[in-house]
Amino acid sequence: MSYVLVVDDDEDFATATATVLRGEGHDARIELDLSAAIRSMTERVPDLVVLDVMFPEDSTGGFELARKMRRSESALKDVPILMLTAVNTRFPLGFSSKDIDEDWLPVTDFLEKPVDLDVLAARVASILANRRSARGGARE
Amino acid sequence: MSTSTDSTPRYTYQLPVAVAPSEPPLAAEGATASLQDALLVGNLLWFVRLRWVAIFALIGFGAAGLLVRGAFPPLGLRPPTGWPFLIAALLLLANLGYLGHARLIVRNPQHRGAAWNLWVQIVADLLALTVVVYFLGSLETTAPFMYLAHVVLACIFFPRWQSFVVVVVASGLYAACVIVERLEIVHTPGIYLDPLLRQAMTGHSAFPWVTASSALGIFFVVWFLASHLSSLVRQQERELAEANWRLTIAQRDKTRHMLRTTHELKAPFAAIAANAQLLLRGNCGVLPGEAAEVVRRIAARCRRLALEIQEMLQLANLRSADEQPKPLRLDLAEMVRWAIARVGAAAQERRVTVDADLAPAHVVAVEDHIKMLLTNIIANAVVYSYEGGSVRVRCHATAADGPVITIEDEGIGIPADKLPRIFDEYYRTEEAVRHNKDSTGLGLAIVRHVAASHEIRVQVESAPNRGTRFTLRFPRTG
Q: For the structural domain made of A3-139, what CATH number should be given?
């Protein structure tokens, strides 16, 4: 069982996501704001963070959190991030082009809302499998 | 799809090639100033080019005075001595200087010397012209009217008060020329051979001054009329530019607002779609048959709406000039493979086979836009095929022309009279709606925008109930 943290200010959507992930056998926790998410992932490091981009107080908060995680010295540095957002990955809405540059934005994968829940479940499974094999490889 | 043996008539429609109207760059602060600078640089370069003509005319005149001296007396003219060469040489040196300075301005947009350059050109030209008028004869010839050319040009290029300064300088120089000639400070016999002509003009002591004053009066009348007309035209131009600017801003705001609104709708819609899927997946227990059917309908409408939102956003982004992705060198065969993979699930669902014959063919284009274009056309071919049908996609590079992609299906086809409308936004043929309820009517509008911005020629051939063939002819890359 993997521990997945869903960070999204839309409670309805976050609950649906968490329900699917729990249905897939994962331990899923929801955080509706960024500061709570940081506290939560510091207390218990997740195996995967499913992260939204736009938050009420910060329209690029998801990007900021992703960068903060990658810059951190703790175990959060290597936690995979699945960005799940209504922001189109290619076409910015008031973001700078750097924000959506896939080479620069340090996320593992990007999915656009509305999402097919089967696709979401498959993507989560694939990221977690890659993480497990990477960890296994590192131990060997 | 009809083949060469088919007797069913096939109708062809060529999408008109038109460059998509793109929004002009934003009028940021200082944009008007830089536009005026650019205009000034254009004007001064035009002056420089015009001066080369004057220099060649002077050299030609001087050369004629040396080489065909005999041709002048029969015309009652005196051959020129060396003065045209001297003036031509001075103008040539000055012109090189103006050109060098103009290039400096072009290379360094921060350099604000265009107006000064233009002023120096005009004053130096007026001085040179005064020397020419002096040598030709300031009273008995029509040479003084050459000043009018400068007066009119100044009215066109400068604000009214600046053109007034030019006419005052021109008048002052002409008056000085007449005085110098009258006082014979530097003696010149003029261009006319017959000394009686000059004597007739200067016989009465007041006559030269009356003639000179008349010329000066004409200078000022011409200045008044030309500057008045020019300021009217300039005012209209300003109003037009302002209206255009306001229109551009309004269009940009409209596009941004539309993008933002669509995006704001996406998030709550995503929650509805996700929850409908939860019910269908059985995450909340097994639903009774009728309830399951209702939820299935909700989920199906959600899928359609999701597609529509995505296409609305794509179309709005194509129209918007903000942060468009950069064109790259792409292999169209790779793009086609990607698009075929994207429509794989839809093809499988309808048992439609997609055969591809792809050879590498390179273009310089925006990757996402080309993917959108190909995905839309290939998805249409699959969706509007009959169950069990086949779609053929061919991509090849031609030596003479650019790359060509053809996408053929054996589907429902498009009636001839409806072909010209299929690229309109939200247009769907009745046949298409009957065959596929999920159609948004935006896919081919996206194709039209991408084709226009990439100068791709699109030809559609279709026969109802036989199929449709799209031919995309890409421009050749350098």
A: 3.40.50.2300
